[in-house]
């Protein structure tokens, strides 16, 4: 029996909070498992524009450069999303960079409950020395083998971004199993360094225990999780069960 493909998806939208905001473009890039058991970039790929059912604000037009005239007459999300998010036999996983964003729009109803991999969360664990963890910083820092520069441009368009993300997850799958990536993706982000404040840029493992205790009560769930994990590793108390990931609670 053949292993179902992995599909990387990327959305361009009118904003970040459905149902007030809608999708105006979806792009995808597939990976397939070859005869040697190696995940490779596949020929399955594409993108199309979607009528979001509302005007596209200027502030988001300035990000992806999709304007109202571009989506006039395009299909609606609920009518077309299943064509991309489902297939006979399903997917081994759906993937996105900072997948919690895509999952707000790609609900379990539309995906038939497919498992998700978040390449942002997995990059934090596999490549903690990266100077940053955005899709594009990882692209230029790691320079994935075989990535066609032109296919990966322009940034902030659905297919080019999905294409770049596909190279990240391909390389991640050379270091960890699909199951491991899915498990990490369901947890809060494990941050390698403090992101803001007086300790900005300091590795969590270098922080004094008292500072970790402060950060364990931070408003940011990723910060709390990371601080509590380091406290546990020091024997400073058991790590409470993490709150349900936003990747599942935002549906």
TrEMBL record:
<feature type="domain" description="Exonuclease">
    <location>
        <begin position="5"/>
        <end position="178"/>
    </location>
</feature>
<protein>
    <submittedName>
        <fullName>Exodeoxyribonuclease X</fullName>
    </submittedName>
</protein>
<dbReference type="InterPro" id="IPR036397">
    <property type="entry name" value="RNaseH_sf"/>
</dbReference>
<dbReference type="GO" id="GO:0004527">
    <property type="term" value="F:exonuclease activity"/>
</dbReference>
<dbReference type="InterPro" id="IPR012337">
    <property type="entry name" value="RNaseH-like_sf"/>
</dbReference>
<dbReference type="GO" id="GO:0006259">
    <property type="term" value="P:DNA metabolic process"/>
</dbReference>
<dbReference type="GO" id="GO:0003676">
    <property type="term" value="F:nucleic acid binding"/>
</dbReference>
<dbReference type="InterPro" id="IPR013520">
    <property type="entry name" value="Ribonucl_H"/>
</dbReference>
<dbReference type="Pfam" id="PF00929">
    <property type="entry name" value="RNase_T"/>
</dbReference>
